[in-house]
Specification:
about 180 residues; mainly alpha
Length: about 180
């Protein structure tokens, strides 16, 4: 992945990444940005996915889509933690600390909220679940950057890291979703 390579070799993307961060960090009150960043906390995001999983199972009578989403969420720390240890990137406001790349909060938000939207989409048949999921995930990412908890590249990498996980959830929801009458 291009972003990981840039972090590991201090590539040319790091300059604009750091400049953007310096320009926006703490440009919005901390009380606001901390609440946005908190949307990526496990106790906030995972229950949303759990409710969507239960709804999907109840409506379809099938476990495969819900289990695919659960597996995707379980894979988030399995993917993020080793990358954090490998890259050891310092934080925007804590240059002495390491382990900021990629953003676990962004990955948690993306898989929880977008995974939930993918599970309920066949039953709602409206675009609002996806729009709400994108808004919540985006708000998390923006909150993390504006508060100075992560560099912009950290949240971008997490979003990209979640694409294959979400494609698997989408495939499971489409393949094993609602039963059609014969």
């Amino acid at each position: 992945m291009l972003t990981t390579w840039q972090v590991l070799v201090s590539g040319p993307l790091l300059g604009p990444d750091e400049a953007l961060s310096r320009a926006v960090v703490r440009s919005v009150p901390d009380a606001v940005t901390e609440r946005l960043a908190d949307l990526g906390n496990v106790p906030v995001a995972v229950p949303v996915l759990a409710l969507a999983m239960a709804y999907s199972v109840r409506r379809s009578g099938r476990w495969a889509p819900a289990l695919t989403a659960a597996l995707a969420m379980a894979l988030v720390p399995a993917l993020v933690v080793p990358l954090k240890q490998w890259t050891a990137r310092p934080g925007p406001l804590e240059p002495w600390a390491a382990g900021y790349y990629p953003s676990g909060h962004t990955a948690t938000a993306a898989v929880a909220y977008l995974g939930a939207a993918l599970l309920v989409r066949p039953y709602v048949r409206r675009p609002w679940p996806t729009a709400v999921a994108l808004a919540l995930t985006g708000a998390t990412a923006v909150g993390l950057v504006l508060r100075g908890f992560h560099w912009p590249l950290d949240v971008l990498a997490s979003a990209l890291l979640c694409v294959p996980l979400l494609l698997a959830v989408d495939r499971g929801a489409r393949r094993y979703g609602p039963r059609t009458p014969s």
